[in-house]
Design the sequence.
């Protein structure tokens, strides 16, 4: 669907991660010249990738070398984990906010035109809202991960105002899909897949009625591909499905897709969770000509297929 | 005016600075037991101060020792300067955001109940607004100083949500008064005083019609004193005069107060400046029973007196 990026040189930072692998595929398909950067190289470098650079993004010389000569950078690396960031905010600021902004400053000094940042539509808003959240909705993140993402967005916006490089933060809702791991407590779909397949009890905080916006990782990748051709002013753009489903809905869909029931272990509600988080995605349609293509049923079926194919080897 | 703080133990971090000296006076007058912390001790420790600790707030052991046994902390230290912060955002994040949040975490670990932070109502909003800005107005700071203040506010709000210590950020408009220096390009009133007294030309960006909210430092100090007795939930509170005046108005008032005209050197407008920044101060009245008491004319007259008394020794 994306307009071709014929010859555009794009560096993907965090190329080996869950979203990164899908973004690399999407960029290669769109004819971009992709350089990949991650801590480790995969066993097989994806077809079409010009170069796979192995290194740590907190090493400034690595970022400087990898970003030289690039037109755009897709920044997906994150040294933060939602579960642990709350306990040491000063370290979270250093390893997450400072490191990301430093990488952006290095890219700007390298002459990069466009810097795309993976922000978090699931955490930066923080507040309840009956209507889908627009990008100008108030932001009151309830965990350090969300506060850090928001702080990074603001520094990137400032780079867009003060300097040459354009910056766009994509506020991604709850991404799910093939390749998402369950052990970092980041994805409800991945956790449900694992509990379904292994027959273990899945802990649920509250009654499972909280509403979230789940977006398929292939659609997220297409949003980044579209954003690589973005020519408007620096901005922030929601990337989600635009629709809300409950946690229990998701669990039922996973059970249907795997054919295996999930035992639920209901635990007391966590007051820091918001009841409802759904993104308004009209800005993405206007600015990126992007809309999600994969239904929740199809996406979860594809994800279940990936999990079931990994049996029993994994 | 402030309710007595009889016996409440308060640490003032940055006690030797422009605002800090006024806050210390106000706290002593309100019967608080004041510990002062700053890089250097003044020639004469202010009357009523229990202890003056000399040390750097970036030294964690200094903050830990000074905050032990305190009920409240007034945090006025800032390692950022508006003029230089834009050039190295990563360093600004480290020295300003990380250092401040680390100090707050140390205070929380010390058992401090209430942490008051001096934020910046003059920079965190960033946007134009015909009406005075309320605390829930959108925040789009246009410089690194404002982005950092906003980021710190969010981390402090999170500490208030997740941990024991209550946090309040006072968003101070444009403070002015006795003791404000002119050499750090922070205060228009101080700069005008200096140009008026020295007879040098004062650079003005644009036509001098930008509107700002100037608040007398004695009123700011009273706001911190009132906030030391605050018992509501963690929050953000505007501290300003609630009224806007133009840059040219301020210059005329300074000329009247000093009796010496100021030569103006008009320079091209800076696009990063907002045209108008005036704070709505009703939340401060509700939550702190605080309103500003000193008129602009009286405050500028007092400030001019301070400048004129310093002649010719300085």
Sequence:
């Amino acid at each position: 669907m994306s307009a071709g990026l014929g010859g555009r040189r794009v560096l993907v930072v965090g190329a080996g991660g869950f979203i990164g692998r899908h973004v690399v595929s999407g960029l290669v398909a769109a004819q971009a010249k992709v350089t990949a950067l991650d801590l480790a190289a995969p066993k097989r470098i994806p077809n079409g990738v010009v170069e796979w650079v192995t290194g740590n993004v907190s090493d400034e010389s690595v970022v400087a070398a990898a970003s030289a000569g690039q037109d755009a950078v897709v920044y997906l690396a994150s040294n933060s984990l939602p579960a642990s960031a709350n306990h040491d905010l000063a370290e979270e600021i250093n390893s997450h906010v400072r490191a990301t902004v430093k990488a952006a400053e290095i890219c700007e000094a390298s002459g990069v035109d466009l810097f795309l940042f993976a922000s978090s539509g699931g955490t930066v808003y923080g507040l309840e809202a009956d209507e889908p959240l627009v990008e100008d909705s108030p932001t009151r993140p309830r965990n350090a991960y969300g506060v850090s993402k928001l702080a990074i967005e603001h520094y990137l916006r400032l780079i867009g105002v003060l300097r040459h490089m354009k910056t766009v933060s994509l506020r991604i809702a709850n991404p799910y899909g093939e390749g998402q791991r369950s052990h970092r407590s980041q994805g409800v779909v991945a956790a449900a897949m694992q509990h379904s397949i292994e027959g273990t009890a899945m802990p649920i905080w509250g009654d499972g009625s909280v509403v979230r916006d789940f977006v398929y990782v292939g659609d997220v990748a297409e949003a980044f591909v579209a954003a690589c051709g973005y020519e408007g002013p620096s901005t922030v753009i929601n990337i989600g499905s635009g629709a809300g489903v409950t946690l229990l809905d998701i669990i039922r869909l996973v059970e249907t897709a795997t054919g295996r029931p999930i035992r639920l272990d209901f635990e007391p509600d966590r007051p820091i969770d918001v009841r409802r988080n759904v993104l308004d995605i009209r800005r993405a349609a206007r600015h990126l000509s992007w809309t999600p293509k994969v239904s929740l049923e199809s996406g979860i079926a594809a994800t279940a297929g990936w999990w079931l194919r990994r049996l029993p080897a994994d």
